[in-house]
UniProtKB/TrEMBL annotation:
This is GntR family transcriptional regulator. Keywords: DNA-binding, Transcription, Transcription regulation. PANTHER family: TRANSCRIPTIONAL REGULATOR, GNTR FAMILY (PTHR43537), UXU OPERON TRANSCRIPTIONAL REGULATOR (PTHR43537:SF5). GO terms for molecular function: DNA binding; DNA-binding transcription factor activity. It comes from Catenovulum agarivorans DS-2. Residues 14-81 form the HTH gntR-type domain. Gene3D superfamilies: GntR ligand-binding domain-like (1.20.120.530), Winged helix-like DNA-binding domain superfamily/Winged helix DNA-binding domain (1.10.10.10). CDD domains: WHTH_GntR.
């Protein structure tokens, strides 16, 4: 887990293999490359100290997953996401997360809880980008060990898409404060191992997040 250039290392969410694919996706998730940025193969090969062939293969894979677009005479770019993409991603996450959370409520260990506690503590002093990365890792740490890895991978893909969509948009301070409080409510419910309280807290958090992004980004995404 060594290939993050700034902020929080997102490689556990992406892949720990240090491949060129993983490194480019990690840089998209970390806002090093944002929506619309050109991805020049020679520059990427130099950046990652590799040859052009693995860069081309990685870009082709990322194109297939929707993170990169390739146009004639224009080359590869980080995808410019439509508003409908954000809407669809948010709806999928709102459906998946309660399902994944149900298993975690009963199965999490004291070590799991402590890791989440530390992430929330870090959120309280984090800048905007780091906060969003910590928020993603908070959710990832709850879902990654779920027995249904197909559902986990679907969540992971959509969460990374959401990070890419929001890469060049900032959270305001009031939303960050609100979100931290929502995380603390989730933590308290988890401490009690209350399924009902945890799902209520989680749905509140997901709903607030969806409302925020829909309001502040809206149809300006193009």
């Amino acid at each position: 887990m060594t290939f993050s250039e700034h902020g929080v290392n997102m490689s556990p969410l992406i892949n720990d293999d240090n491949s060129i694919y993983s490194r480019i996706l990690n840089d998209i998730a970390n806002s090093i490359f944002i929506s619309g940025d050109r991805l020049v193969t020679t520059a990427l090969a130099k950046k990652y100290n590799t040859s052009i062939t693995p860069v081309r293969e990685a870009l082709k894979q990322l194109q297939g997953e929707g993170f990169v677009t390739v146009a004639p005479n224009s080359g590869a770019r980080v995808a410019k996401f439509e508003y409908t993409t954000m809407r669809d991603v948010l709806e999928i996450l709102q459906l998946l997360e309660p399902y994944l959370m149900e298993w975690f409520v009963n199965e999490h260990t004291a070590e799991d809880y402590q890791q989440l506690t530390e992430l929330v503590e870090q959120m309280e002093t984090a800048d905007d980008l780091t906060f969003r990365q910590l928020d993603t890792l908070f959710h990832w740490n709850m879902y990654k060990v779920h027995y249904n890895q197909n559902a986990v991978n679907l969540w992971r893909k959509n969460r990374l898409t959401l990070m890419a969509i929001h890469s060049n948009v900032s959270l305001n301070s009031s939303r960050i404060e609100q979100s931290i409080q929502e995380h603390k409510e989730i933590m308290q419910a988890l401490k009690e191992r209350s399924m009902k309280k945890t799902l209520v807290a989680m749905n509140k958090h997901l709903g607030s997040s969806a409302q925020y992004w829909s309001r502040y980004i809206g149809k300006v995404i193009s």
